[in-house]
Amino acid sequence: MPLIIYGKPLGAALPRPLKELWEFFPPLKEASMKLRDIPVKLLDPKGLLYVGQKEYAGTSPIDNSISYLGTDSATTCHIAVLRETGSGATCIGHFDGSATYKGVHGMLKNIMDIAGSVTGRFELTLAGGFNDERRISSQISDELLYEFNSHPQDVHLMCATISDMNTVMKEGTPFPVIYGLGVDMKHREIFPATFVDRGPDYPLRNAMRMFDWQDSFPCIYNFHLRRIVIQPFNYCVDDVSCVDKFINLTDKEILMKFSTSPKQEPPNFVEDFRNTFIHIRIHPTPMRSLFKNGLPRYYKQSPEGLWVDSGHSYR
User: Fold this and answer.
1) How many other CB atoms sit within 10 Å of the CB of residue 30?
2) pTM (2 decimals)?
3) DSSP code for 219
4) Domain ranges of the chain
5) Neighbour-count burial of 248, counting CB atoms closer than 10 A to its CB (0-12 exposed, 13-18 middle, 19+ buried)
6) Strand order of the sheet with strand 68-71?
7) How many Å apart are CA 270 and CA 276, to the nearest integer?
8) Is the pLDDT assigned to residue 18 strictly greater than 80?
9) Using CB atoms within 10 A of its CB, is residue 104 exposed (0-12), middle (13-18) or buried (19+)?
10) Residue 242: what pLDDT?
11) CA distance 240 to 109
């Protein structure tokens, strides 16, 4: 079944140009503009399950460990929030244009596993990207729409604040309006958000993405165990001086060489980049220093709602 937009199927052909998506479906345009206009909320770490670039995670309201899902730092990247309305099971993913098929199918599989017996419908919210010169955003928009439209599961697109719809001009330069989304699991609300903490092992998770371990798009949370799980992976750094070169790059060099949108990146982009390579310098062989005996790293919620290391066991 094609992607359904307010009772109407999207059809086999994607809108060309993309802005026709909102012209063809006025209720979608209204919902997309409404999300864009919601003030940004700053979420603290308590009860937060944060996913980074090229990650996804899901939970449901019966999970007392998680109050919020979230992700941010999306410029050309896109954010997808998928909810099964019967159980309230919700999954969030952060897409950068690589392994989109894996991410979409992983999210759908994950949410069906969490929901168990599906009694409602699957509702999708998309946000992110902007009208960038290289048209990277519109390509990611197309890929996401295509993958959800190709899946046999009925999915209802409720909001698409993406690419052109997510663009604001500042002194003649386009910028994204929404950089991040938060999901309130109790009240089932979705809103623009930013975060003061991005969860455990964030530099390690970024290293996995940078080295594109098996073209991965991991689910970082095991709903049944109520644990963040970082699966083992490896990289080998023979020459630590090469790592130092990355760390010592200027802010401008990092932005120009490693960002798809240097002018639009949030302040944490450069800091996150350096922290990742500092982490790599400290742990040049993670299978030895971090994944002892080839076991995953587990994190559980403390009574205060913060993530704490539970070692290499989920108990």
Assistant:
1) 12
2) 0.96
3) B
4) 4-309
5) exposed
6) 41-43, 189-195, 181-184, 68-71, 48-50
7) 10
8) yes
9) buried
10) 84
11) 40
* Sign of the four-CA dihedral 189, 193, 197, 203: positive
Residue 261 has pLDDT above 80, yes or no: yes
What are the structure tokens assigned to 202, written together?
């964030």
Tell me the pLDDT tens digit for each residue of 208-235: 998 866 688 999 999 999 999 999 998 8
CATH T-level assignment (fold) for domain 4-309:
60s Ribosomal Protein L30; Chain: A; (3.30.1330)
Strands (E), the chain: 4-5, 8-9, 41-43, 48-50, 56-59, 68-71, 78-84, 90-95, 122-128, 155-162, 167-170, 173-176, 181-184, 189-195, 221-222, 227-230, 297-301, 307-309
pLDDT tens across 93-149, in order?
999 999 999 999 999 999 999 999 888 999 999 999 999 999 999 999 999 999 999
Cβ atoms of 52 and 198 closer than 8 Å: yes
Spatial distance between the Cα atoms of 240 and 244, rounded to a whole number of angstroms: 7
